[in-house]
Design goal:
Layout lengths: L1 H13 L9 E5 L10 H7 L4 E4 L5 H4 L7 E4 L11 H13 L4 E5 L9 H10 L4 E4 L4 H9 L11 E6 L11 H4 L4 E6 L5 H10 L7 E6 L7 E6 L3 H8 L5 E5 L6 H4 L16 H5 L4 E2 L1
Parallel strand pairs: 1-4, 1-5, 2-3, 2-4, 6-7
Antiparallel strand pairs: 7-10, 8-9, 8-10, 9-11
Helix pairs in contact: 1-2, 4-5
The protein binds S-adenosyl-L-homocysteine (SAH).
Length: 288
């Protein structure tokens, strides 16, 4: 994909559409697989003077950044923030003020639970020119690579994206709305709250046997899917040692994975994961 993309990029750049100096580009890096970058993202990555990235941006994507661009790791794993959000905002403003072409690379889409909105607000406040480049959000990456359509005429007429992170707003969840039938629920940052999510959704009327899955490290070589039901998923997650970054997907569409998983689950080598034989026993729990 890269050589063809470069040809296209070359033409686009010739049209004078290069990144101007003193501007910040908030760019979606997608969920991990570099083939899911937009051409705009790739072009800006190849022009940037300085790149600010965090742990959600995969090594494979970072490898496509201009080799002599300065790279700044700004965090943020939980409780291990390299820089606070305020420091990141201030750094973006300062670097753009120095006349640099600044690229802020964010996992997935910048405006989907990525605090891209806060960074854009800070830039607007300081009159720094900026551009937002959409990325493939992890829900889209996970659904296509795990064989889980997020909507389907027969099973789900709506899809809700929600954060399960308490400080990101997960503490104020509208449980009756989230428990609605014929709806797919995609929970970002939901692993920590999974037992409560399962309990509350069931208490608000969603069937305990509703299919549910965790998609870990979607679209990367390490993608793993743990599938069960709303009732069983919290224990399965624990048994399998599920870890972030991961999405929780709840809804009847999850069952379609049996037929739609791009690589048939039964054709995949299923190996015990982190000493958890329960995971190996579930044909839909696969290491890929
Ligand atoms: N802006 C990002 C989301 C940032 S919030 C996006 O559009 O995807 C961080 C959360 O996103 C993670 O805790 C996880 O729930 C989810 N996430 C990001 N990348 C992921 C991946 N490759 N696989 C599964 N979940 C991912």
């Amino acid at each position: 994909m890269i050589p063809e993309a470069s040809a296209t990029l070359g033409r686009a750049t010739d049209c004078g559409d290069a990144a101007p100096r003193g501007k910040v580009c908030l760019v979606g890096a997608g969920p991990g697989d570099p083939d899911l970058l937009t051409l705009r993202a790739l072009r800006l990555m190849q022009q940037a003077d300085v790149v600010l990235h965090d742990h959600l941006v995969s090594e494979a994507v970072l490898a496509l950044v201009r080799a002599d661009a300065e790279r700044i790791y700004v965090g943020k794993r939980e409780r291990n923030h390299a820089l606070s959000q305020e420091e990141i905002n201030a750094l973006l403003v300062r670097l753009a003020g120095e006349g640099k072409r600044v690229l802020r690379l964010k996992g997935g889409d910048p405006f989907m639970f990525g605090r891209g909105g806060e960074e854009a607000e800070a830039l607007a406040e300081h009159d720094i020119p900026f551009e937002v480049v959409p990325g493939v959000t992890s829900a889209a990456g996970a659904s296509s690579r795990a064989g889980i359509p997020l909507t389907h005429r027969d099973y789900a007429q709506s899809c809700v994206f929600v954060t399960g992170h308490r400080r990101e707003g997960g503490a104020q969840m509208d449980w009756p709305a989230l428990a609605r039938a014929r709806q797919t629920l995609v929970i970002y940052m939901g692993l920590g709250m999974l037992p409560e999510i399962s309990r509350r959704l069931i208490a608000h009327g969603r069937g305990a046997d509703t299919p549910a899955a965790i998609v870990e490290r979607a679209t990367t070589a390490a993608q793993r899917v743990v599938a069960g039901t709303l009732a069983t998923l919290p224990d399965l997650a624990k048994a399998c040692g599920a870890r972030p970054p991961a999405l929780v997907i709840v809804g009847e569409v999850v069952a379609l994975r049996e037929r739609l998983c791009p690589a048939r689950p039964d054709a995949l080598p299923v190996r015990p994961h982190r000493d958890a034989p329960e995971c190996a026993a579930d044909p839909l729990t696969t290491d890929r």
